[in-house]
Specification:
425 residues; alpha/beta; Rossmann fold; 8-stranded mixed beta sheet; two-stranded antiparallel ribbon; 15 helices; 45% helix; 3-beta-hydroxysteroid 3-dehydrogenase (NADP+) activity; NAD(P)-binding protein
């Protein structure tokens, strides 16, 4: 093997969407820190960030370089002179994409494929909430009477109904649900486009596509007859439930006809692996609040943690532990976890003091690993602060979950193929 091939193999490339703020930015910071401590000294991190504008991209890259310098200064204190070695192991670059604009997504996919650079991890993080405000009487009452639960599973958010994202025209068939497109479908098209860059073979592990879900991905928020949640005031929660359905059923034989097309599977290659994560409850800018209310939300979340909720990292850096772990953990370790105990929704969790860990999240109809009879007694399972509408998985509910997963995979593939034809025209 010549030196250029060896150098190419030593680069670990991660692409993070929506990296300019909140969870996306913290995920990038965490990837830098953990990569330098956990990966071999011969390996370099190529971190590609995406934002919607050039100015945001430049600003984000500058702030990430500042974070890198702080990390290097800390390293120098323990091992003088090590910063020069470590600084060469992180490269940061940027791309522009608007996930609500499918043409923009297609152009990014084309650029990356044309470049031909191996992509090891794609973190589908960008998204919007689609909320217009709060039902204040309901919010105040639920906080006063049921603080911990209402801080984790709020029922008082008011969402827009019928918000659409025009795709170059005003005709109904040229529009898509805005939250659906930003949170799911834009990433879906991007992941399909870059799948050839993420294949594994005898010398390379398969790439990883990590989808960011939410603790609020309620089963009741998703209507299979309204895939894009255009008739719902819970479009965000619907989009996250859709994400759960897609990823948790992605390795079942019943969905293979759709997933094989989506991941452009070939017999001589190992297709990318898809993983599901959520950050718990974090204080981020996805909810656009005045400064006073933002600090009130921050205090409310800390109180919920102090009351014993395991789902309140609060800090987006702590919330990024699950996606960073899925990005950098040994592939064999992840495979062993999901082969032995079932496919999981991996969550960021903390104790009352803010000590972090990654755990499995219970999902309605799926449980912790898609297996009937599971109990919250495993090392990486929790039932603390369980959503009160959650029911134990039964044979019937597990079958219903798989049938629904098969249905949405088929519909998403049909939608993708339809839009790619439109975009080609």
């Amino acid at each position: 093997m010549d030196s250029s091939e060896d150098e190419q193999q030593s680069v670990y490339t991660v692409l993070v969407t929506g990296a300019n703020s909140g969870l996306g930015f913290s995920t990038c910071c965490r990837l830098i820190d953990e990569f330098l401590h956990s990966r071999p000294q011969t390996q370099t991190l190529q971190l590609i960030i995406t934002t919607r504008s050039t100015s945001k991209n430049k600003d984000t890259q500058a702030r990430l370089h500042q974070h890198l310098q702080k990390t290097l200064q800390k390293a120098d204190k323990s091992t003088p002179g090590i910063s020069q070695v470590l600084s060469a192991r992180v490269k940061i670059s940027g791309e522009q994409v608007d996930l609500c604009n499918l043409r923009s997504v297609k152009e990014l996919g084309n650029r990356l494929v044309k470049r031909g650079t191996r992509l090891d991890v794609l973190i589908c993080n960008a998204g919007i909430g689609g909320w217009k405000g709060l039902n204040w009487p309901a919010a105040i009452w639920s906080m006063l009477t049921d603080w911990k639960h209402s801080c984790t599973y709020p029922t008082y958010k008011l969402g827009f109904v019928g918000s659409v994202s025009p795709q170059g025209g005003e005709k109904k068939e040229e529009q898509l649900g805005e939250v659906f497109t930003a949170n799911v479908f834009g990433h879906y098209l991007l992941a399909h486009a870059v799948a050839p860059l993420m294949k594994g073979d005898e010398t390379k592990e398969p790439g990883r596509i990590i989808w960011i879900s939410s603790i609020e991905a309620y089963a009741h928020a998703f209507n299979p007859e309204d895939l894009q949640a255009l008739k719902s005031d819970a479009a965000y929660e619907s989009s996250k439930r859709l994400t759960d359905l897609l990823i948790l059923t992605s390795e079942l034989p019943s969905t293979k006809p759709s997933t094989s097309k989506f991941l452009q599977e070939k017999d001589d290659q190992r297709k990318p692996k898809m993983y599901l994560a959520h950050p718990g409850v974090c204080a981020t800018s996805i909810a656009d609040l005045p400064l006073v209310l933002w600090y009130a939300m921050l205090l409310a979340q800390y109180i919920a943690r102090w009351l014993g909720s395991p789902w309140h990292p609060v800090s987006s850096y702590l919330g990024a532990v699950s996606s960073a772990w899925l990005s950098l953990a040994p592939f064999s370790s992840l495979a062993s976890q999901e082969n032995n105990e079932g496919k999981a929704k991996w969550a960021s969790s903390t104790d009352v003091f803010g000590n972090e860990r990654v755990v499995r999240t219970e999902v309605g109809g799926w449980g912790w690993g898609g297996r009937v009879g599971e109990k919250a007694d495993g090392k990486m399972r929790l039932s603390a602060n369980r959503w009160r509408g959650q029911e134990d998985v039964t044979k019937e509910s597990r079958e219903d979950f798989e049938v629904l997963g098969q249905k949405v995979w088929k519909e998403m593939e049909e939608l993708r193929q339809s839009w790619e034809k439109k975009l080609d025209v």
